[in-house]
């Protein structure tokens, strides 16, 4: 890790510092690396299969059905059977596709999904065959950025697959999907910022360490027990992360990309057989990945939940943390499924509106607020300063909300007034607006239903940007 | 001196031009009157200067020096010696006459001549400025800016369809020369900066103590060339003379008077004043080439003049020949020759000016400058023909008329130093007789065709315009002293500056002076 | 205090001190930037009907306040040193910078007047519509307009201010792009000949991006050699033979200088990097062209001078031959091509290229006189150009028609509109370098510097090129004054107070700088070194280190 | 690994981009080549920064990224505009550019 | 570099797996020719002819991409600052807030001018 701060001299100097969190990494022997890689790979595939099965079972239960229960105990081998079935299906490559891109797209979608898990810490340092090592493939000084990077690369799989398909549904789905993913990626990336402020590092292991143990917070002179999870300390960030992780993985209620009602299968409409399976696999691995990141960054990682340590001192020793990690992961994954069972799909404009008009501004305000508080604390500003800054910020936020609300209601009132005027004008003259409506008193036109108001040509144009 | 006479002489026409230009278009008659009044006032100022000028006094008189662009050592510096004084006087004299001559020409001008009159006044200011400047930079500024009014006078108020091209040709030739001169001007500055304080003041640059005295000869040659090419184009000298016939042919006669009568003298004046005095060592190096070129000019101009069918072009070619004489005189480097050359500048202005004016009257009557359109004019317009004859005879330097004095001096001076060129130059005189007499014979004599019968003779105004010139030609032919008196000391000082003495083998300097006196006596 | 497990990396204490920024010295740039940002806010929140006046007032007030700040700065500048550096020495405010800033601000003000005067005629009602489409017609009827142009101009001006003031390559690169991007967009907004305008924008953009990539790679190489992007450090590193990381790094440095020069020469439009100029000048809306032709050139040369005179000062002997060739090529090639042009804006574009060549002769001089001469030339050329383009906006093909681009359409203008034609003639004469105009003094200054530095052949070439350029300037004058007007004739918009004042300013500047340049040289421009032999004076002394 | 190799790679990438700009006719591809050049510059900066042991080059790389992004925004806007025009009714030949 | 090697190994493994899957499907799946099967899916009707290059789509996507770039860049600057927030202190905070204000203005512009409207 290098400290990237500019000194007061013209020459920008640097002080190379070894990041304390990275000391334990990079020294693994090759067999250990190989083992870890295989383990993560296997973990991904197995988790994906289990997740698919679990999802169907749980949703079945929630919908008073049974779900798959034929293959293996509780139907646990259902996904495997599905996979084999897909492998035996005909691999159709439509005539109009761009062959190379079409074939490579699923690969491009799958590989990044796997790679993101490389930096997830499954547990602390353990001993494997006499070799001290972390239960984590590797860690990077920019660890979390790898998640964002792989997520972005996953978009290529979607876009290229959609484009190469040469089908309108696929193209539309792909565009929608990529627009959605990149939109939510911004909010997601912003939700990490507060975490980094508190952790002071971007290494995942460092973030997990930063959440270890219970902390105390000194607030107005009194010591208060504070939970150490960032999910609690930085609740808004966590909430937004949860929303974005759902959006990022194209899951319900944000699965517009493959909204069957509108655009068939979305970007993978034209894919079949194992190519389709790869997309499918990637989606579920992505779910696992973002859940693992949620656990790592916000839910204390592999550390045991706070109350546990109170009565079980050894909960964080040895291999046990792996269990805590898996438990948390399963809880988050369950949440995904729960969402899918409970919520209807949103409209596309609502989805984008939420991403751009709510999540991002809220995040920005939140980041500034957190940073201000933190800086004020570290600068040891007096209580009066802190209070006044807090109140100023609150006042600004309230004012902004009020103004926004007023502008919205004004706009609504204006629209209502306009609609009313239109209606009135139509009542007086059915020809209003130039739409050829036969007069109401025409002999054969006795319907009492009011004609639909039409936007008149004379109305001042709405402004358009770009389009 | 309390009154800045020279500045006044420059500013008066300049302001007058501004006033004329700002007059409303429907008052162009007033504009013309104002222009004439201003030019007469300027003439009065110049006469005042001439009266106060002391021929035996310091070289530069009426000096005025003011810092202009201190960074470049540029000054607004004016002053006159004898040579520049007579040229300024010539300019100041010709302008009112030209205005008078052009009084009725203006009907076919796009703006009733208001612009033309304003341009003439601008030109007058520039002409006085260029002769009065004693700062190289200021001289260059006037030298270049002068092009603009002439350009418009030819291009916009000229004659014939070709005038735009002629104007362009004139401008480009002059600009080209001017730009080369700019390099040399900058070179002078750089050289003076190397020698100490950078300056453009002519007085500080020249002379054995001057800033340029230590100049390396190679550099001096290049700088000399920069100036000389510009002046040669202006003069005009073979082979860069080709713009003059075109320009004169397309110009109004009044414009041509100023162009050939005064403007082109800047070239010869510049050679005398700047080429020679700034770079004497280079000037010596260039004597022979220049003499050869001037001889070619003399003969070539005369020969081509014979072949012309357009009177304006014919006169222009005669001028090329005459300018050859002037340059020859300058580079002969004897005091007689140079005095003759200086004198020639004035006399040529008078003679050619008169010739152009008379031709202008013809054109105003018949609308043509072609020789074949005129025959037997002297029967219907004897006064016109008379004036034409005198002016023409002046052009061929008939003894008794003023150009004779100058031409004679040039011959004598040149012969003393370079006998062979002098002999060759004499061919020019013979040819001059040919083309002038032929011109007169073809247009003025013979039977008068019917269409010319109704041609009126000179009106009072026209007579007023041309008569002063004729009078001066005759007057100075008989009594050249008023011209020689201021010019001679200036020439002697020039000779001193460039470190040349008369080569007359058998005569010492005193006798040379006596010889000069004798030549004065010839005129009387 | 909330401690996150004491996990913060311990940081170097050296980095803790907060930097000290002299905001007054940055004030002009900050003001322009603030006005630009406010302009965006205005776009977002002010109702459409009020946007234009608000934007105009904002832009004007911004520029004027910036200029006032500049005047204050001039007073505040320490008398005993060339200037001050600010913000980690990334920005240098010294006398050359201040002069350029003043010039750029005034030119921008003048261009802005043209923007304001020609909003309907010059700019497309809605850039996003497809030319000739129904949609475009609707926008035209609705009198839509892009009030965004004003903030864009301000952003471009910000870049123009920062570019010559930047004291390291990073700032310079950022400034270069801040300067360029708004112009790329503005270029494509012409109302008439939209397709052409759009293609001009595309061409400008692609070539601009291409050249800035070269610029950047050059910076990278120089950085590799010197270990820093700061001009002063580079100079010192070059003197010391490199930062020692790359063995035998001189080729690296040479290549770096060459590539940096490519980027800079592109911006100033020197041959062989001039290709964009005619197309862009012709295709862009004329007010934008005016801004580009004046402000951009001034800023770009400002930057170029600083780079060559400060960062590469010790390497004069290495880059001088290159600039020799470029200067000669620029003057000769551009002058030769310009002769064949038939379109006014293209002609002015080529003339701008030639002038770039003239200024390059002063760069070759690498002396304080050269610096002063180049700066003066820039100011003189800038004002004349703005005036010339202001005239171009007024002359139309027919009543209500497009601007008369073809030279032949200008025939007879001198007869019908003597004043306007007179102004243009004055500008053209200034371009040609006729005495008593600013162009002459400028030429004199640059040629003088070049000659003093021993570049006599360059000066001669320059003079010959001047003669060629004079030819085509004069041709326009011939057309205006000596040709009969065509049947339709040029139709001239009566200049409003805005355009009128721009032309007035152009005329005034052209004359004042031509007749009384003394004060400018004595008080505004860097002075030649007082002590010592002139040849040994370095232009570097004019800059703050 | 010798950091000079990265410099060489950067030079190769830069050259590919530069040549690509010259030989390709499609505006988008030309544009992408320019972006490639910028990224090559970034690589060079970061490598040199590593060699010098300072972070100045890395900071430059940051800014270059920003500039490149802004360039994308501006450039795509212009290119899109032209493509929209071209597809619609009156298509002037691309020869407009070949002046 | 050792830090990055495992990621590459993992990626390589994933790629190998994916490519193997494609290959396996090719081997294992049946192959029965049917012209209709090779046409793009379009609810059973004749497929609409597609313009080359993927057809036209609304400019909104382009705007989204632009916005994404703007904010992505913003994040580039936020991350280093966030990591070193404590060290940078008040100066860093003010600088970043100013930066955010500027970005927010661009954002507000986009919002107000309808760049964020989806229909």
From TrEMBL, chain B:
Keywords: Membrane, Oxidoreductase, Transmembrane, Transmembrane helix. It is a multi-pass membrane protein. Residues 501-524 are annotated as: Disordered. The chain crosses the membrane at residues 6-22, 34-53, 73-103, 115-133, 139-158, 170-191, 211-231, 243-263, 283-307, 314-335, 341-363, 384-405, 417-440, 461-479. Its main location: membrane. InterPro entries: NADH_Q_OxRdtase_chainM/4, NADH_UbQ_OxRdtase, ND/Mrp_TM. It comes from the Bacteria. One of its GO terms (molecular function) is NADH dehydrogenase (quinone) (non-electrogenic) activity. Its EC number is 1.6.5.9. It is found in: Endomembrane system; Membrane. Residues 133-430 form the NADH:quinone oxidoreductase/Mrp antiporter transmembrane domain. It is an enzyme of class 1 (oxidoreductase). Belongs to the complex I subunit 4 family. This is NADH-quinone oxidoreductase subunit M.
UniProtKB/TrEMBL annotation, chain C:
Signal peptide: none annotated. It is found in: Cell membrane; Endomembrane system; Membrane. One of its GO terms (molecular function) is NADH dehydrogenase (quinone) (non-electrogenic) activity. Keywords: Cell membrane, Membrane, NAD, Oxidoreductase, Quinone, Translocase, Transmembrane, Transmembrane helix, Transport. Residues 166-469 form the NADH:quinone oxidoreductase/Mrp antiporter transmembrane domain. Its EC number is 7.1.1.-. It is a multi-pass membrane protein. It holds the Pfam family Proton_antipo_M. It catalyses: a quinone + NADH + 5 H(+)(in) = a quinol + NAD(+) + 4 H(+)(out). Belongs to the complex I subunit 2 family. NDH-1 shuttles electrons from NADH, via FMN and iron-sulfur (Fe-S) centers, to quinones in the respiratory chain. The immediate electron acceptor for the enzyme in this species is believed to be a menaquinone. Couples the redox reaction to proton translocation (for every two electrons transferred, four hydrogen ions are translocated across the cytoplasmic membrane), and thus conserves the redox energy in a proton gradient. HAMAP family: NDH1_NuoN_1. NCBIfam families: NDH_I_N, PRK05777.1-4. This is NADH-quinone oxidoreductase subunit N.
UniProtKB/TrEMBL annotation, chain D:
This is NADH-quinone oxidoreductase subunit K. One of its GO terms (molecular function) is NADH dehydrogenase (quinone) (non-electrogenic) activity. HAMAP family: NDH1_NuoK. It comes from Lipingzhangella rawalii. The gene is nuoK. The chain crosses the membrane at residues 6-23, 28-48, 60-83. The lineage of its organism: Bacteria, Bacillati, Actinomycetota, Actinomycetes, Streptosporangiales. Keywords: Cell membrane, Membrane, NAD, Oxidoreductase, Quinone, Translocase, Transmembrane, Transmembrane helix, Transport. It catalyses: a quinone + NADH + 5 H(+)(in) = a quinol + NAD(+) + 4 H(+)(out). It is a multi-pass membrane protein. Coiled coil: none annotated.
From TrEMBL, chain E:
It is a multi-pass membrane protein. Keywords: Cell membrane, Membrane, NAD, Oxidoreductase, Quinone, Translocase, Transmembrane, Transmembrane helix, Transport. Gene3D superfamilies: NADH:ubiquinone/plastoquinone oxidoreductase, chain 3. Its EC number is 7.1.1.-. It is found in: Cell membrane; Membrane. GO terms for molecular function: NADH dehydrogenase (quinone) (non-electrogenic) activity. NCBIfam families: PRK07928.1. Belongs to the complex I subunit 3 family. NDH-1 shuttles electrons from NADH, via FMN and iron-sulfur (Fe-S) centers, to quinones in the respiratory chain. The immediate electron acceptor for the enzyme in this species is believed to be a menaquinone. Couples the redox reaction to proton translocation (for every two electrons transferred, four hydrogen ions are translocated across the cytoplasmic membrane), and thus conserves the redox energy in a proton gradient. This is NADH-quinone oxidoreductase subunit A.
